[in-house]
Amino acid sequence: MEPFINWDKVIKKEARGINDDDLGEVQSIGTNYVITVKGIANKKTYYIPKYLVEGYDGHNLWFKVSKRELKDTFSRNSPPKVEEYSKYNTGAAGFGAVSQASSSVTGQETVSVPPDIENRVPMIERKKTVAEGDNEPAVLNWDNIVNKSVRTTDNEPIGSVVAVTSGSIVVTSIGTRNEYYIRPKI
Predict the structure, then answer these.
(1) Does a structural domain hold residue 109?
(2) Which pTM was predicted?
(3) I want to staple 98 with a disulfide (CB 3.0 to 4.6 A). Which of 41, 50, 111, 173 is the partner?
(4) CA distances from 83 to 30, 54, 88, 93 (A)
């Protein structure tokens, strides 16, 4: 396996963050940032500094950013200026490290950044995502999910679980009180 790949190879790949946070899908690559978009109906655009990338594992592009940091710091309607994101790369003589100014963003002390991060992505060992799990069922006791809120993968509220039958989960929507019957993967 090559230790690096070109940035164009990660377009349309999922972006993941600290604790397997969903950071959206990679849409485009800028000079010093990666543009991700999250959501279907209510799309949000994020400009994440390349300097915060951990690497690409062949399936997901991993960043040293949490979902909260994504929303609070990198949600934008237009691309950042070069100066805005250069603070994430102290890069003296081509050897970069995330500066102390960004350590409050990442919650980490110092992070090594490859010297040519603007041009290529480091490959890393494949990480398991929460969706892939550890072969342990997501719900251990189905009766405990009654009266729990249900959200989409985009974290949009849908409604509440009102019943669990032998073949489906019954969800009542917010407002219109529509009923949905969902067949879980077991």
Answers:
(1) yes
(2) 0.61
(3) 111
(4) 13, 22, 10, 18
Helix (H, G, I), strand (E, B) or coil at 174: coil
User: What gap in Å lies between CA 56 and CA 5, rounded to an integer?
Assistant: 8
> 45-59 burial by CB neighbour count: b if 16+ within 10 A, else e?
bbbbbbbbbbbbbee
CATH number of the domain bearing residue 38: 2.30.30.240
Enclosing H/E stretch for 69:
helix 67-73
At 30-77, the pLDDT tens digits run 989 999 999 888 899 999 999 999 999 999 999 999 999 999 999 999
| Residue-range definition of the domain harbouring residue 59 | 4-122
Q: Is residue 173 part of a domain?
A: yes
